[in-house]
Structure formats: structure tokens, C-alpha cells
From TrEMBL:
Top-level taxon in the UniProt lineage: Bacteria
Descriptive protein name: GntP family permease
GO terms, molecular function: gluconate transmembrane transporter activity
TM helices/strands, residue ranges: 31-51, 63-81, 101-125, 137-160, 172-194, 240-263, 269-291, 312-330, 350-381, 393-411, 431-453
GO annotation, cellular component aspect: plasma membrane
PANTHER family per record: GNT FAMILY GLUCONATE TRANSPORTER, PERMEASE
Keyword terms of this UniProt record: Membrane, Transmembrane, Transmembrane helix
Length: 454
């Protein structure tokens, strides 16, 4: 019954938001209350899970979101992101930009926490979208979805990838090699297929794009600043490279910390500098100092004010998204799935791959966390790995592909994506939920094909 109740709760949230136009915060809390009570958590247990879920997400990503949004607002006000987009478009051309972003983010940035990647990439995606035509925002949204999340489950040191490798005793070097074969190819193919669907009318800007007033006002303010700067009313902005240092330095610190930990030479000081919260805070301080010295106190303060407005909205929706996932995690769904699939041990290779994919996909649909789904699926399959006639690394990749499937409303990432990209709930279901489902399905035959040559 718990599987049925979890399905009802998730469908109810989607229908409340899309059909009845109920605010996402109210819809998510309603779904959480239903599931907790229907699953037998009781009145106190349900409310406790909701509160703990909200608090847990805030502890995990609250400061990251706040620092990242404020930094993005300052960089936008200094025209740094807009100048970067113009440079990328000049070098790559509009048609290549989404593919380049997907491939680079999948290959080079998995060491960066996915929420941090989203916070840093979304202003760039919004800035580039108008150059790509009517479907530009949908295409760029799908590109950063594929770039961030495919790398997360396939490429070391993505958290999902490392978790799977550790639980299944797969050497990281082996996981890295196979992941670099599957990950970038999956991301690029996903963007290609998705772009073809967009050409057929899959994206509708009128219904799929819905930026918050705070986000629109922040961008309008930045455009006004750009005109003022162009008119010579303020000191000139720094060079593009200097303007991007508040982003590049945190990325370098986080990546170095992850590499040091994986290679075994990390120290408490290196771990301190590589902590995403500290790294983004240093980036924020750098952006603030650059803005003060280039665009002046007034424009800097206005950009910070708009950033605070946007942050509050994102934090509330993100938090209640975490509440639904916490309520689901408090049920016995994991045990139900473990009992359901353990009887399938001893299956042929292809069946084993499909089984691993299915377990992880069902867990992700229910729990709303890619990493938790991957960890739980690996925990379920690990004890029976010896009975499966398939290489362990292949099963690990299949788990990663399944855990990627259809990220949706019970994930805090979904609500961050919707707000930061300036799309409606329906738009997020297309550019995020559909794209992750597409990437998950595209990866599956690639993994099956790879199993025949391993």
C-alpha cells in the first residue's frame, strides 16, 4: 500500500499545481500531510518529518542558495554574465552553445555540488536564451539539466557516482573510465533529441516560462545598469576575466578540495577552503568588492536587495520540496522494494541491468533524491551482486541511469530549477523532469551495449 500512497501523493501535488493552479508551497505540504497520515506515521510523526525535512534541506543548501543568488545578482549587474554569453556565442555560435555547456558541465564540473552548479549556471542560461530563438530558454534549461545531473550519476567525483562505486566496491579509476564513456555521450545525445522535440513545438514560451517578479525586476535593473554604464555615468566595469573570478575561484577551491580528498592528500585546511559554503561566500565577497569599486554603492545595494527578494522565494519552495522527500523516506518503501526485487537474483545480464535501472528509477520517483535513490538501490542490489551475471561496474552505471529518471516535484532541486530559470511548473516538468527521464532512457541502451564488450 505504501507504493500506492506515495504515487497518489506525488500525482496529487502535480495535479494541484498544474490543473487547479494551487501554489506549490501549499500543494507540497498537502501532499506531505496525506502521505504521512496514509502511511501510518501518525499526526506527530508526519509533522515532525515535514519540519525535519525542511530544516535538513535548509541546513544542506540554504546558505549555498543565498550566497549563490546574491553573487549571481551582482555579476548580472556588472554585465559579467552577459559579456560571457556574447563571447561564447562568438566563439561557438548559437547552435553549439547548449551542447558545449552540457558536455563541459558533465565532464569537468561533477566535483561541484549540483545545487551550486545550478545557482551558477542558471543566470548564464537565461542570458544566452534570447540568442537561441523562441525555444531558447527551454533548450538552455535542458542543456544545464543534462550537464549537471548526468555528470552527477556517471562521472567521478560526482556524489551519486562515488556513492555507487563505494557501495558496490568498484574502483574509482574504473568508474571514472566507464563514466567518461557514458556520461558526455548521454548528455550530448539528450540535448540533441530534446532540441528536435522543441522544434516540433514541445516548448510553449507563453505557458512554460514564468519568471518571478523578483527575478524579472533584478534583470530589468541590471539592464538599466548596463545602459548607464554604456553611457559613461559610472566607473568602467572590470575585464571579463576579472569579473568572472568570483565564480572561477569558488569552482577551483571546491574542485581542488574534492581532488585532494579522493587522492588522499587532504588536510583540515584544504577541506576548509574546499567547503562549498566557504567557497561561495568568498566568491560573494569578491563579487561585492568588485561591484562596489566598479558600478558604485547605489547600484550594488540595489542588486543585493533584489537578490535577497529572490532568495526568500527560492528558500521557501526548496524547503517544502525537501519536506515531501523526508516524509517518503520515513516510510518503509525501501524495505518493500528490496523484498520485491530480491527474488530476481541469477538473471541474465540484460535483465540484471534492467532490474538495477528499475529499482533505482522507482526509488527516485518515490524519494525525490538522486543520491538517496542511488545509495538505496546499491544497498539493495549489493548483497545479491554475486548472483548477478553482469560486471559490477555495468550494474553501477545502470543504477546511476535509473536514479536519474524523472526528477520531479518531490525534489528540492525541481523548485530551485523552476525559480532560478524563470520557468513555470509545467516548464520545469519539460526542461527538467522530461529531460532527466530522456537522459536516463538514452543511457540505458548505451550501458547494455557496453556490457557486451566488457
Amino acid at each position: 500500500m505504501i507504493v500506492l500512497h506515495a504515487t497518489i501523493a506525488i500525482l496529487a501535488v502535480v495535479l494541484l499545481i498544474i490543473v487547479l493552479k494551487v501554489d506549490p508551497v501549499i500543494s507540497l505540504v498537502t501532499g506531505s500531510l496525506y502521505l504521512g497520515l496514509a502511511a501510518g506515521l501518525g499526526f506527530e510523526g508526519t509533522v515532525t518529518a515535514i519540519v525535519d525535512g525542511f530544516g535538513g534541506i535548509m541546513a544542506e543548501v540554504g546558505l549555498l542558495i543565498g550566497f549563490g543568488v546574491l553573487m549571481g545578482s551582482l555579476l548580472f549587474a556588472m554585465q559579467a554574465l552577459q559579456r560571457l554569453v556574447r563571447l561564447l556565442l562568438t566563439v561557438l555560435g548559437a547552435t553549439r552553445l547548449p551542447y558545449a555547456m552540457a558536455a563541459v558541465m558533465t565532464t569537468l564540473f561533477p566535483s561541484i555540488y549540483v545545487d551550486v552548479q545550478l545557482v551558477l549556471a542558471s543566470p548564464l542560461a537565461r542570458s544566452a536564451a534570447p540568442q537561441l530563438g523562441r525555444n531558447g530558454l527551454g533548450l538552455m534549461g535542458g542543456a544545464i539539466t543534462a550537464g549537471i545531473l548526468v555528470g552527477y550519476v556517471f562521472v567521478v567525483p560526482g556524489l551519486g557516482t562515488i556513492s555507487i562505486a563505494g557501495l558496490l566496491d568498484i574502483p574509482l579509476a574504473t568508474m571514472l573510465g566507464f563514466g567518461l564513456l557514458i556520461g558526455p555521450l548521454t548528455a550530448v545525445l539528450t540535448v540533441f533529441v530534446y532540441s528536435q522535440l522543441l522544434k516540433l513545438g514541445f516548448w510553449n514560451p507563453e505557458g512554460d516560462e514564468h519568471a518571478s517578479e523578483a527575478l524579472l525586476e533584478a534583470e530589468a535593473l541590471a539592464d538599466e545598469h548596463a545602459e548607464e554604464l554604456a553611457g559613461g555615468g559610472h566607473r568602467s566595469v572590470p575585464s571579463l576575466f576579472v569579473s568572472l573570478l568570483p565564480v572561477l575561484v569558488p569552482l577551483a577551491l571546491i574542485a581542488f578540495g574534492a581532488i585532494a580528498e579522493a587522492a588522499g592528500f587532504s588536510t583540515p585546511f584544504i577541506a576548509f577552503l574546499g567547503n562549498p559554503v566557504l567557497a561561495l561566500f568568498l566568491g560573494l565577497v569578491g563579487a561585492y568588492a568588485l561591484a562596489k569599486t566598479s558600478i558604485g554603492n547605489t547600484l550594488t545595494d540595489e542588486a543585493m536587495s533584489k537578490g535577497f527578494d529572490t532568495t526568500g522565494q527560492i528558500l521557501l519552495i526548496t524547503g517544502v520540496g525537501g519536506s515531501l522527500g523526508a516524509v517518503i523516506a520515513a516510510t518503509d518503501l525501501e524495505q518493500v522494494l528490496g523484498d520485491l526485487f530480491s527474488a530476481e537474483a541469477g538473471a541474465p545480464v540484460v535483465v540484471s541491468i534492467l532490474l538495477a535501472w528499475l529499482i533505482a528509477a522507482v526509488l527516485h520517483l518515490a524519494i525525490g533524491s538522486i543520491s538517496v535513490a542511488a545509495i538505496t538501490a546499491a544497498g539493495i542490489i549489493g548483497p545479491i551482486m554475486g548472483q548477478l551475471d553482469a560486471p559490477t561496474v555495468i550494474i553501477g552505471l545502470a543504477i546511476g541511469a535509473g536514479a536519474l529518471f524523472a526528477l520531479q516535484v518531490n525534489s528540492n532541486f525541481f523548485w530551485m530549477f523552476q525559480t532560478l530559470l524563470g520557468v513555470s511548473t509545467r516548464g520545469a516538468l519539460k526542461a527538467l523532469t522530461f529531460v532527466t527521464a530522456l537522459a536516463s532512457v538514452i543511457a540505458l541502451p548505451l550501458i547494455i551495449g557496453l556490457s557486451f564488450v566488457v
